[in-house]
Amino acid sequence: MARGGITVYLPRDLETRIRRIARDQHRSESSVVAEAVKARFERGEGAGRDESADRRISRFDLRLDKAIGESLIIKEILLLFVRVWLEHNPPIDEEMEESAAASAEARFERFLDFVTQALGPGKSLGAASSLSGREQATDIVNGEVNA
Fold it and tell me: Taking CA 65 as the corner, what is the angle to CA 64 and CA 71, rounded to the nearest 5 degrees?
């Protein structure tokens, strides 16, 4: 098979690696380089996609899978909480329904304010679990609406 020639200038460290591989395999440096280039084109790597992009995509997929798994766990915890709450709280007496509804409305509004503050720029929900956050949560549960 006829061969053409191309002169390629490589960084010193890559040149050293090629020489070492050629020496270890008792081959010429040209055959090592030719085989590497051929293998890369056969894998379709020459079409613009490189191994580092594949690794980044793989890492992104792993992070996405983890985030989806965590969100499913959070969903299950929330649904379990609602179920336990509903099973263990007795129904409200008819004469107390109106005041309970007003109290629930005020508590819910305070809860929404608390969530809005916790999700504000530069804040985290983790900070909401601090002592002041627990005090605010206790106020919400007790029906105290402190602005």
Answer: 90
pLDDT at 114: 84
Instruction: Tell me the average pLDDT of the chain.
Output: 81
**CB-based contacts of 67, cutoff 8 Å, min separation 6:** none
Q: How many residues does the chain have?
A: 147
pLDDT (average), residues 22-26? 91
Token pair belonging to 103? 């109290």
Cβ atoms 106, 143 nearer than 8 A: yes
Structure tokens belonging to residue 125: 């929900």
Cα torsion 63, 65, 68, 69 to 10°: value is -110
Domain ranges of the chain: 12-48, 50-89, 93-147
pLDDT at residue 40 tops 90: no
